[in-house]
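help with this:

***
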Amino acid sequence: MKQRVITAIIALILFIPVIIFGGWAIEITATVLAVIGVYELFRMKGIEFKSIEGVLASLATIALVFPIHKYLGFIPEGTDVLSIFYILIMGFLALTVFSKNTYSIEQAAFPALVTLYVGMGFKYFLLARGEGPSLVILMFGLMVVWTTDIGAYMFGRAFGKNKLAPNVSPNKTLEGSAGGILSAVVFALIYLNFYPAQEYFGFNLVSMIIFTIIFSMVGQFGDLVESAYKRHFEVKDSGKILPGHGGILDRFDSMLFVFPVMHILGLF
């Protein structure tokens, strides 16, 4: 527990200034975290990251997350990044031709899906930050995830009896899940008192509370999805980069689901 707390404090000291500063700092940070996330999934699967697949996956992830048009003058601002992403994904498919039947489309599907899953999650994390007052939106998403995690842990420890998804994550309970949602709603009510819903988010208070419940549930589902990956690959953590916490995916699994849903619902 001591190690977890120390790691969390150090991570926040480094992370919070980056999201406050925004700009190139958060763009580079989000891109690096995304590539590490893809690496962690490759590692779980047992695929060598120093390979053609690893190179293609890294480039595809960078294409999705990093706003390359801002820094590469020969790429127009309106360029569809998904087109660049798809061209790189075609590289995985090309391996089925040049591998002399040793590389199948099923094998190509894993790095393609992994890149899309991690890359799009961090892309929307970055879009949530945007410019100026968008920091309010990004912090709202982060805090909903964090308060859900804390609330689920505390309520689960105190009242947990009924398993939420025993085949995937045996320690999670329905009581903990409900406590996580309740904690997120309490946070939202406090947060929106300082940053009025209509002014900062374009929705009324009732809508934002409903959204908070949705985000809390979606975040918990994202956590369960990553737990399912780890159980399938028989690993305890996605990585070891954060002592006491595991890997990048262990910390960002919920956010990879929450921020795309926030975008779909029109919060940014």
Q: What stands out?
A: The chain has a mean pLDDT of 92. Strands lie at 163-165, 169-173. The two ends are 36 Å apart (CA to CA). The first strand starts at residue 163 and ends at 165.
